[in-house]
Amino acid sequence: MNDRVDFAWQGLRMSVPDDWNLGRVDGDFEKGYARLDDAEIVRAEIEWRRLKGRGEALRLTELVDRYLANLQKKAQNVDAHFEVQLRARFLKNKKFL
């Protein structure tokens, strides 16, 4: 299972094993959820929401960078491959939006 595919949603793109499938997706840019499953179990869950009324909010890119750095550390601790491409461009043809 070394083959990987791109999963992209709401500006986030990540490479996942090719046997992971979209199990559920809800929401929009403001608030939402995406789940990736394989034939056995849930493999990844992504949740987002816009923060309001909590003072100075961190930029989304800062939050994502912190989260990805934490995931990288966890992957290193278990000697797992972890790779992220930030600011990935996708959905070039937006005519249907």
Structure keywords:
35% strand, two-stranded antiparallel ribbon, alpha+beta, globular, 97 residues, single chain, three-stranded antiparallel beta sheet, 19% helix
Write a compact overview of the structure shown:
The chain has 97 residues and is α+β, with helices and mostly antiparallel strands. The chain has one domain.
Structure overview:
- The chain is an alpha+beta fold and 97 residues long.
- It has one domain (4-77).
- Helix content is 19%, strand content 35%.
- It contains one helix and five strands, in the order βββββα.
- It has one helix at 60-77; strands at residues 4-9, 12-17, 21-27, 31-37, 42-49.
- The strands form two sheets. A three-stranded antiparallel β-sheet has the order 3-4-5, with no helix packed on it.
- A hairpin with a 4-residue loop joins strand 4 and strand 5.
- The longest helix is centred in the C-terminal third of the chain and has 18 residues, at 60-77.
- It is globular.
